[in-house]
Amino acid sequence: MADMTVNQSAARSKAAVKVNTRAIVMGIYLLFLLLPIYWLINMSLKTNTEILSSFSLWPRDLTFQNYATILTDPSWYMGYVNSLIYVVMNTVISIVVALPAAYAFSRYSFMGDKHLFFWLLTNRMAPPAVFALPFFQLYSSVGLFDTHIAVALAHCLFNVPLAVWILEGFMRGVPKEIDETAYIDGYSFGRFFIKIFTPLIASGVGVAAFFCFMFSWVELLLSRTLTSVEAKPIAATMTRTVSASGMDWGVLAAAGVLTIVPGALVIYFVRNYIAKGFALGRV
Amino acid sequence: MEKTVNQKAWFLVLPVLLLVAFSAVIPLMTVVNYAFQDTFGNNVFFWAGLSWFEELIESDRMWAALGRQAIFSAIILAIEIPLGIFVALNMPKKGFWASFCLVLMSLPLLIPWNVVGTIWQIFGRVDIGLLGYTLDKLGISYNYTQDFYAAWITVIVMDVWHWTSLVALLAYAGLQSIPDAYYQAAKIDQASRWNVFRYIELPKMAGVLMIAILLRFMDSFMIYTEPFVVTGGGPGNATTFLSIDLVKMALGQFDLGPAAAFSLMYFLVILLISWVFYTVMTNLDKREG
């Protein structure tokens, strides 16, 4: 009896140690992830003189001036507006064309379906650097240079394949009997698709839209190459400040923090789908 | 799932086909055009045959960039894959802390790539950055704009910071799919921790790990924005990876022929990897289905 108690308490303390090592590993890893982000936020709340003259772990002289600069100066905040415009355009286009295509891939086999599916994948994997120059010439020649739609269409290169793959991954989980029952009940394809099928994969549409949004939002090379003034994205506005002399670190940091906000806002809702989205709906 | 043969399904795919053809095939044809032609300006082109490719194969510049790229991708994989698995094994399985870790770990994945560069540019500076300042105070000379090793370490640590979570999340998803019965059986057999990992967890994770390796390889192979913002490819050409070199050539110097030939060879590598990726994916589907 006494033996058992000893054993149990030994086991318990061993378990406690185990839990602790796990917590310590995660703690260190999360600290490693968050420290640079914290530093950016820290910078954004300091004045430029404080940044350059003293070194402190937190802002001594707390200021929101950097954010005020960005939100009142059109050359800054228009960057966000431009980015949002083409990102939303791109997301809508991608999802609308990808929905029927993903349905076709998940339900039917047709001539060349596998080749087409593979070809889509190669576009998701294609390096933007290869396409930067041809895109520039293509959109210049059709008079779309420096417009939002040009960037939105260019980002379709990787976002449409991404959306098709993710949606297909979700759709294959929906049993085919549902389609057949609906057709027997006299639904036309269009009505069935909009009224019954799309609500069934609503979470899939949400995830696909989120990833289209994100990948378009984080891309810099193509959006910078295809724009100059009218549609200049925030990413390009930021790099141009970097190259200018007499850098305003506080404003740069504040601009960076603001670009993280859209992702951080929805992160909680998609937390269980992040791996699935990056793995093209296959996990 | 049994699929019915239906050629009309082509109509559902048509919009995607047209859109992607417009944004992929037309530009790619331009690249092919430039790769085999030369010009003296004024849009007059003449056939150049394979001369651009020959020039490219003989140029040290391309090989140097390719070498740097290969080393970079190899280091990235060697660090991120084991570290990601390790983190995934230590993540809480469920409850509040699981969500907590998931949210915080996903954060770097959703930061715009140029901001990732900016974060590390600031973080590593000796005068204003926490990392640079600390290292400097410890007496370690660290200057990522001047020093070859410092630049490389910064770029690598930045990529580890940015993408290890992806590997961890994928591995975590693989771990979650292992039924409890497996662990109970292992306990009855008194299997060691290592054996549980080697014979239960690793085989079950194999599929997602393959995806993780391929994704990380692909994305590190075409990395552009992050090192460009931090080091600009310098000092010298120390961190000029393939994409950075290609953009310099195409948009900076407007050397269309070599850049196009470069692009095509780049694209062939990507095509090869995509094919491996596709094969892995379809095999994974078959095993599940």
Automatic annotation (TrEMBL), chain A:
Principal place of residence: membrane
Membrane-traversing stretches: 21-41, 84-105, 117-136, 148-171, 192-218, 249-270
Keyword annotations of the record: Cell membrane, Membrane, Transmembrane, Transmembrane helix, Transport
Protein's cellular compartments: Cell membrane
Keyword Mitochondrion: no
Coiled coil ranges: none
InterPro entries: BP-dep_ABC_trans_perm, MetI-like, MetI-like_sf
PROSITE patterns recorded: ABC_TM1
Matching CDD domains: TM_PBP2
Domain ABC transmembrane type-1, residue spans: 80-270
Membrane topology: Multi-pass membrane protein
A single GO cellular-component term on record: plasma membrane
Pfam families reported for this sequence: BPD_transp_1
One record GO biological process: transmembrane transport
Gene3D superfamilies (alphabetical): MetI-like (1.10.3720.10)
Keyword Transferase tagged: no
Family: Belongs to the binding-protein-dependent transport system permease family.
Protein name in UniProt: Carbohydrate ABC transporter membrane protein 2 (CUT1 family)
Automatic annotation (TrEMBL), chain B:
UniProt xrefs under InterPro entries: MetI-like, MetI-like_sf, Sugar_ABC_transporter
Cellular compartment(s): Cell membrane
Topological category with respect to the lipid bilayer: Multi-pass membrane protein
Keywords attached to this entry: Membrane, Transmembrane, Transmembrane helix, Transport
GO terms under biological process: transmembrane transport
Keyword match DNA damage: no
Membrane-spanning intervals of the chain: 12-36, 70-89, 96-123, 149-175, 196-218, 259-280
Major localisation: membrane
An example Gene Ontology CC term for this record: plasma membrane
Record-given protein name: Carbohydrate ABC transporter membrane protein 1 (CUT1 family)
Organism classification: Bacteria, Pseudomonadati, Pseudomonadota, Alphaproteobacteria, Rhodobacterales
